[in-house]
Amino acid sequence: MTFQRARSEEQRAVRRRAILETTSAMLDEMPVAEVTLNELSRRVGLAKTAVLRYFESREAILLDLLDDRTTTWLAELEQELAHGVDLSGSALERAEQVADVLSRSLAAQTVLCDLFGAQGGVLEHNVSVEVARRHKRAALGKLAAMASLVRRHLPEVGDNAELFCLNTLIMGGALSAYTSPPPSLLAVYESEPALAIHHVDLRTALRVAIITSLVGMLPRS
């Protein structure tokens, strides 16, 4: 696609949305680390300098996309928890069901996990104070929304819900880096199966971490 220079706020919004949608499509093909401004500008039909008029950096684009994808995922998670957790069960039973739903749902969001994995170490390091503040405020709102979903199905976690949700997202990002090893490591794991413990199944690893955290937060009877 090609664009004329935006002359109005509406046109600028269209350009920004096109940049975000193009970046999102790229992330369906490649990891965050391989997304470049050069390739993005080529695909979106704008010069790199033009892209930087709408977003101050590659990282700013990816942070906005992280916010967008988190919003979409939380809407899906709300429905998944509603169908996957029996509110009449005991606290332990509900904790196990929340862990099942949350680990399955987050593990399916491979792009989102990749973005969370890059968030602290990469994406937040090349943005202005204004962009960082806007992103963190948005992230805080989404964390509160996620915590509310958890408390709805497991009120026993109480004030620990926000910290639990933050840790879950961080774990999703960290663990996702170990789910798709390069060919050299796959060859190592095949030749020495004992070493394959380092080849992580994201859903399984997340469920262990999530259920361990939740059970630790339940009140002692």
Automatic annotation (TrEMBL):
InterPro entries, sorted: Homeodomain-like_sf, HTH_TetR, TetR_C_34
Stretches assigned to coiled coil: none
Sequence ranges assigned to domain HTH tetR-type in this UniProt record: 13-73
Keywords assigned: DNA-binding
Alphabetical list of Pfam families matching this protein: TetR_C_34, TetR_N
PROSITE patterns according to UniProt: HTH_TETR_2
DNA-binding recorded as keyword: yes
Residues in the DNA-binding region annotation: 36-55
Protein's recorded name: HTH tetR-type domain-containing protein
Native source species: Micromonospora saelicesensis
Lineage, broadest ranks: Bacteria, Bacillati, Actinomycetota, Actinomycetes, Micromonosporales
